[in-house]
Write a structure and sequence with these properties.
10 helices; single chain; about 25% strand; FAD/NAD(P)-binding domain; alpha/beta
């Protein structure tokens, strides 16, 4: 039985990015996805162009729209519009995710879609030799520590390392022994109406129709992604997400009640946690890295996928602490930011109308959030100023 360097479960942005970077370095990678690709994924689909710096291929084929202006309303009242200093990509996730997978395949990743992982088992090889050559991959599988991955096809595959990128609801984290992960489970619902798009360069946000969250309209080349979500999770229970989404959709000539609806949980960061175990790591939403303020998860997921690939590659090269260092890197690069985002979200949703009037009317706030979205600016660079505006300095001193 061939022994892969790494088996990755989940072909979303995290898993596909990890597969691409591991294959690019010459590692033998198996990527397993339960759905048939391309597959639909409920998501607004806003992506920072800065992700392009992490890859050596062109994303233009899967950019559905580029937005250059943000528009805000409160209870559908007078709009606040701000021109962005740099465009933001709008993508359809079925196209975007599949494109990442295809680039990984071009680098040598083996893909198994329509294949569900049903069990995993760690097998100790009784030695720590991680020397990798073709003969060892084929005949020496009993000589190294490895993961056995059983699938719905009745097949078993073996990999020296395992990356679990099967999303917040996926079973891999539990099977790997992570137990209860730190996460706030938020809720969102979305429709994807097709049709002619007016002012396709404008992304829309509505803050007055839904408490502890917002409603959005992300334009695409051939329609909209209109959705609503509650992201202050301690206030989520019993919220009707359909009515505000449908009311907002009607402002764009869309019958939101008639459109098919796609609801999904969102696993928001709630604290740093261990993301590694014996020869395995969590990545993407399985690692609960969604932003507590904006609910943005694509860029953080890609980042974790790339860092997971680097950690596995370093471990294969003989660094025994590489996977532990991955946990530390995510805590340092993402966790610190998410802690500040949580603080800002709590202040924003505590007095949403005041927050809206105080923050959204300032063009500099939009520009700052766009730079945070792109990874060019840290929450630490602006959160104290924002908290002073929201609380008269009380929260900022805590």
């Amino acid at each position: 039985m061939p022994l892969y360097d790494c088996i990755i479960v989940g072909a979303g942005p995290a898993g596909a990015s990890a597969a691409y970077h591991l294959s690019r370095k010459g590692h033998q990678v198996l990527l397993i996805e339960k759905a048939a690709l391309p597959r639909y994924k409920p998501c607004g689909g806003g992506v920072s162009p800065q992700v392009a710096q992490w890859f050596d291929f062109d994303f233009e084929p899967v950019i559905s729209q580029k937005v250059t202006r943000a528009r805000y309303t409160w209870h559908l009242g007078e709009a606040i519009e701000v021109d962005l200093k740099a465009p933001i990509w709008m993508v359809r996730r079925n196209e975007f995710d599949h494109y990442l997978v295809q680039q990984a395949e071009k680098r040598g990743t083996k893909l198994l879609d329509k294949t569900k992982v049903v069990a995993v088992e760690f097998v100790s090889g009784g030695q720590t030799d991680t020397t990798r050559d073709d003969a060892n991959r084929t005949d020496g599988g009993d000589q190294v520590d490895r993961w056995k991955v059983m699938t719905s096809r009745g097949e078993t595959f073996e990999g020296q390392y395992l990356i679990a990128a099967d999303g917040g609801r996926g079973p891999m984290a539990k099977w790997l022994g992570f137990g209860d992960r730190k996460a706030s489970i938020a809720g969102a619902i979305e429709i994807e109406p097709k049709g002619e798009v007016e002012n396709s360069h404008v992304v829309h946000f509505e803050f007055g129709l839904l408490k502890n969250g917002y409603v959005w309209n992300f334009p695409k080349r051939d329609g909209y992604s209109i959705g609503s979500g509650v992201f202050r999770t301690d206030r989520r229970k019993g919220k009707d997400l359909v009515a505000p989404m449908a009311e907002y959709a009607s402002a764009f000539g869309v019958d939101g009640e008639a459109e098919p609806k796609f609801g999904h949980p969102v696993y928001i960061w709630k604290g740093n946690q261990r993301l590694h175990t014996q020869n395995a790591v969590l990545a993407g939403e399985a690692a609960c890295v969604v932003d507590p303020l904006t609910a943005e998860g694509i860029r953080p997921s890609i980042f974790t996928g790339i860092k997971a690939a680097e950690a596995v590659s370093d471990a294969i090269a003989g660094n025994p602490s590489a996977l532990a260092e991955y946990t530390d890197i995510i805590a340092e690069e993402i966790g610190r930011e998410m802690k500040l985002a949580t603080k800002l979200a709590k202040a924003f949703y505590a007095a949403p109308y005041l927050s809206y009037r105080t923050i959204m009317q300032q063009p500099s706030a939009t520009w700052a959030m766009a730079r945070i979205f792109a990874g060019e600016l840290k929450y630490a660079d602006m959160v104290q100023k924002a908290l002073r505006r929201l609380s008269g300095g009380l929260l900022a001193k805590r």
